[in-house]
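Justification of computing resources. Each target in the renewal requires a structure prediction run like the one illustrated here; the chain below, 273 residues long, is used simply to show the kind of job we budget for.
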Amino acid sequence: MKTDNQAPIGVFDSGVGGLTVAREIMRNLPGERIVYFGDTARVPYGSKSRQTIIRYSRQIVRFLLTQGVKAIVVACNTASALALEDIEHEIDIPIIGVMKPGARAAAAATKNRRIGVIGTESTIKSGMYPRFIQAIDPEIAVLGKACPLFVPLVEEGWLKDPVTDEVARRYLGELTRENIDVLILGCTHYPLLRSTVKRVVGDKVELVNPAYETAQELKRLLEKKGISNPGMAPEEFPYRFYVSDAAEKFKQFANSILPYDVRVTQQINIEEY
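Resulting structure tokens:
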């Protein structure tokens, strides 16, 4: 299949969390265009069944293919856990998730072979992080903790708030007592709480941000396939944003965390795909 090097990267998430992945791609692959889709009408994914997540992910992938993308990043831990393996056999462009890069980085970083993972209920229940990590080193103990309140706190903008600090202490207390030396931020919203999490777990625990690791993995993949974009015209705005609902709210959130000013967010009917 012939690929235009200047074609965009498709990035999708259940909502706004995947913007942390888009942000790392913007920083680390500044030559690449991005088409981002946030499924804001059907968020959260964390509490939905595997069949539903696969159906949603297929619809989004079909939409991204209409945008002429050359590769897709599943910037959602839940969809990476439950849908990625099915979808990668169905399309003929590269597709990567956020879990494997995060798992590899954590396995490489741990000294005492005790890794913590925080994420949504379904990410933790899926057992995918332990599976990926123990495939690298079966001796590593992986301790998971679901932190369902973190996502609404981030979306409310309460990143530095006493309520968030208290919730973090409650969630992370038991993990810190387990003598972990690495903690995976296993939900794309969680990097926005990095300073809070760091304060609670302390300096002895290294935080792994799968968003950053995914951007690095994407860079290697594009280079290996020979489809990296050498660069864009400086006057061109290289990023397009689509959502399934609440475009204005999405745009405000995007502008609070991205290094670029998002001028337009377009709402589409994802059920048509």
